[in-house]
Amino acid sequence: MQILLLNPNTSIGITDRMVAVAKRFASPSTEIVARTAPRGVPYIATRAEALIAGAIALEMFAEHGHDADVVIVGAFGDPGLGGLRELASVPVIGLAEAAMLTACMLGRRFSIVTFAQVLGPWYEECVEYHGLTSRLAAMRLVSAPFQELTNVQYELGEAIVEIANRTGAEDKADVVILAGAPLAGLAEQIRDRVLLPLVDGVAAAVCQAETLVALRPRKAAVGSYRRPDPKLSQGLSEALSSLLSGRIAN
Questions:
Q1: Residue 67 pLDDT > 70, yes or no?
Q2: Looking at the domain assignment, is residue 112 inside a domain?
Q3: Is residue 228 part of a domain?
Q4: Helices (H), 148-248
Q5: Are strands 31-36 and 70-73 parallel, antiparallel or unpaired?
Q6: Tens digit of pLDDT for each residue in 70-105?
Q7: Is 175 among the domain residues?
Q8: DSSP secondary structure of 162-184
Q9: Last residue of one domain, picked from the residues 201, 216, 235
Q10: What SS3 class is residue 132?
């Protein structure tokens, strides 16, 4: 089984962190193939950046998705997820959706804890997009600044532990999701210090990816995620243009 992990931001260090977590949770026979966005922003935090990242994720999939059995969008807000599901013949999983669905199987209501205030509006809309607003207890955002994106979980680890513990008592949360690719792997490190179950988006996505491949779902021929009719395009990458025109099928 090959899992294609697409990081739609430009931080190679974050890609490496996600791959390390993915390999710890994947079966020994599963191959993790990761790709980092060749352009864009270091980390996606706003609606505008998510739109840019979604288009880049489509291009990355068109270029690298030929041998994949399943695709993971390696950004918590799931940029490009809907479009990728339209075009791909294999399952596509977003970190946010995988984390939230996993949390829903562990408790009634979950809180999302993340490392930057600016992420709040986009993440709230992501929850709404997936139809899970009624299951969201709270969106908890660390207010302290950080210096290095790749070290954010170490710089803000204590604050994240504190907020994760507070949300159980103050927000009546049953589960905590540690949101954002830079926090990949943190749940394993702090699980004994947090009173609620913790969900890591990368770990959840990898486990669900293997399950979906095992279920062998067919590509929808009807409904909102059926493959769109072929269409000519202008000015796009050759790989994406070919995918849209139906000359190649991923």
A1: yes
A2: yes
A3: yes
A4: 152-155, 157-171, 186-190, 201-215, 238-245
A5: unpaired
A6: 999 999 999 999 999 999 999 999 999 999 999 999
A7: yes
A8: HHHHHHHHHH--SEEEE-SGGGT
A9: 201
A10: coil
Same domain, 136 and 213: no
CB 9, CB 40: distance < 8 Å: yes
Question: What pTM does this model have?
Answer: 0.95
Q: Give tens-digit pLDDT for 105-148.
A: 999 999 999 999 999 999 999 999 999 999 999 999 998 889 89
For residue 137, the enclosing domain spans 97-201
Residue 26 shares a structural domain with residue 121: no
Q: Are 187 and 51 in contact (CB under 8 A)?
A: no
Residue 250 forms part of a structural domain: no
Spatial separation of the C-alpha atoms in residues 65 and 91, rounded to whole Å: 11
Same domain, 105 and 10: no
Shared domain for 64 and 108, answered yes or no, is no
- pLDDT of 248 above 80: no
Which residues on neighbouring strands pair with residue 114, listed in sequence order? Answer: 141
Alpha carbons 42 and 186: distance in angstroms, whole number: 20
Q: CATH number for the domain including 26?
A: 3.40.50.12500
pLDDT at residue number 250: 64
Number of domains in the chain: 2
Tokens of 62: 């068109």
- The token pair at 176 is 């905590």
The answer on 166 and 118 residing in a single domain is yes
- Pair of tokens at residue 127: 């929850």
For 200-211, write each residue's pLDDT tens digit: 999 999 999 999
CB-based contacts of 86, cutoff 8 Å, min separation 6: 225, 226, 227, 228
Provide the pairing of β-strand 110-114 with 136-141.
Answer: parallel
